[in-house]
Amino acid sequence: IIPIESHIIKDRMRIMYNGVIFVTVLMNEIDNSIKKLKITAYGLIDEEEVNEISESLLHEINLNFAELDSVDSLNETKMAEAARIIIRRKFRELTGKRPITSIHIV
After folding, report:
1. Rounded to an integer, what distance in angstroms lies between the CA atom of residue 103 and that of residue 106?
2. I need a surface site. Which of 20, 37, 40, 69 has the fewest CB within 10 A?
3. In what order do the strands lie in the sheet with 33-42?
4. Main-chain phi, psi angles of 62, to 5 degrees
5. ∠ CA(23), CA(91), CA(47), 5° rounding?
6. Beta strand pairing status for 33-42 and 100-105?
7. What 3-state class would DSSP assign to 28?
8. pTM across the whole model
9. Could you tell me if residue 43 is left (phi over 0), alpha (psi between -120 and 50 degrees) or otherwise beta?
10. Separation between Cα atoms, residue 94 and residue 15, nearest integer Å
11. Is 23 helix (H, G, I), strand (E, B) or coil?
């Protein structure tokens, strides 16, 4: 049995009320830009809407990555966090929810 105070239960509650987003980022290793962005959002908006905003998010994240200094642009954790913030902010604007957002850079 999992205690009610457990982070697992808290995460499940957040997912239930706010949804979850999984993002796979395919990087271009030559210039540290994003080649492709695959977003899967559960409990937020339908797939068609996700596809509509993917291009604008791709552009916005690439602009943000271009502004990172050379050390941060090589740091996958900082890049993932920058992308997470941008994507989460966009979904909050669209839905009013604060989804759990997971970024995978490949």
Report:
1. 10
2. 69
3. 33-42, 20-28, 100-105
4. -60, -40
5. 60
6. unpaired
7. strand
8. 0.82
9. left
10. 17
11. strand
Residue 19 CB neighbour total at 10 angstroms = 19
Cβ 23 vs Cβ 57: under 8 Å? no
pLDDT digits (tens, 9 = 90+) for 32-84: 788 899 999 998 988 999 998 999 999 999 888 888 766 666 678 888 999 99
Residue labelled with tokens 């080649």: 35
> Which residues are CB-contacts of 71 (< 8 A; sequence separation ≥ 6)?
none
82-91 pLDDT, tens digit each:
999 999 999 9
Concatenated DSSP letters of 37-60: EEEEEESSS-HHHHHHHHHHHHHH
Which residue type is seen at 82?
A: A
CB atoms within 10 A of CB 22: 14
CA distances for 93 relative to 7, 20, 37, 84, angstroms = 26, 15, 19, 14
- CA–CA gap between residue 52 and residue 101 (Å, rounded): 18
Pair of tokens at residue 63: 């602009």
